[in-house]
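Notes for week 9. Today we move from apo structures to complexes. The key idea is that a small molecule is not decoration. When we ask for a structure prediction with zinc ion present, the ligand SMILES becomes part of the input, just like the chain. The input block below holds both the sequence and the ligand string. Read it once before you look at the output, and try to guess where the molecule might sit.
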Amino acid sequence: MLRINKMRKITVILLLLSSLIHLTVFAGNSKQNSSIDVVNYKFRLTLSDATDRITGETTIVMTLISEDDSLRFDLVNSNPDGTGMRVDSVKVNTAKVTWNHTNNRLSCKTPAGTNTGDTIKLTIWYKGIPADGLIISETKFGRRSFFADHWPDRASNYLPCVDHVSDKAAVDFIITAPDHYTVVSNGLLISEEPRSGGYKMSHWSEKTPLPVKVMTFAAADLDKQLAGSVNGTEVWSYVYPENRDEGFYDYAVALVPLNYYTSLIGQYPFPKLANVQSRTIYGGLENAGCIFYSENSVTGTGRSEGLIAHEIAHQWFGNSVTEADWHHIWLSEGFATYLTSMYWEMRLGEERLKSDMKNARNRVLRSARNNPSPVIDTTITNLMHLLSANSYQKGAWVLHMLRNRIGDKAFRWKR
Ligand SMILES: [Zn+2]
């Protein structure tokens, strides 16, 4: 993702070298649920115009990877303020079972006779008002809208899941919502069917395993347009109706970085790319094949080209190649930052790359003065604090140094 920061000019170079040394430090956090590997999530949600309360039915297909008495998932409990989720029933394979839902963890017994390597299917029925993770609000033009916004581990505010970057799974979103909404999500649209009472059910499916942080969907009044295609991948723009002309113009530039990265890195990893104007709390959020941008990213002036290039770079680094633990975020943000600078180098020439790297260096040094820390900083407990100059600019510098060391020809993924 990207947050927009102003850069000041300071010129010192020393601390950059320390990044290489610190790369040997590895994060110690364990997986939140190491006894299972989720294979597929089916998230069925019903949304309404009358209330922010959602109704959910989630089916989780998983493989037992080590013996454990219980199956455990993240799901935020009902809170005194009226938000949170309340579970109505749970089924394991074909049998209804008892469950425990406390401390934002949902658990039930592992079925008797299940062995390592076996597949288990769990279905959870629940309802509630999401406190976060699904932003139910109005667009800046006053239209009601639903935008998922998961990064880093906010999905479990409304979706039962292993809300950790290490567990990747295929995902289906099956959204029943008033039929005036356009629904868009990861993967491809499988079906769209009318339902009684002015509702519509939209089924999107992504077979490529994703971390939950970049699973997403939107249900909002959105106009869509096919911007074009790159190597057979369709690129779509979804924008607010009020921003239709400016939005289609601004987002169509996505074809250029997609084409560039495909030639530099290799085949785009997902079946389509949608660029979506949204209510994300970030400047941009790289949801797999369904990137969300802040609503003010649309200006009609092409000003968001760098932002779009950054989020598209994440489709390879962060989404397809995913860090094993949160503290390795430079593999996502450092790569996206450097690939954006390489994109500008391709578009505007070497001077632009140099200027980008100089600005990045200044940010790193300024940040190091206040908070000297390694690229992989396992002391961070608030995951939002990972969005730092260490992860972005210092990570980018590690790659810049590597490129300088091995040369341009070797610094290409595609052969
Ligand atoms: Zn990013």
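The chain has a mean pLDDT of 92.
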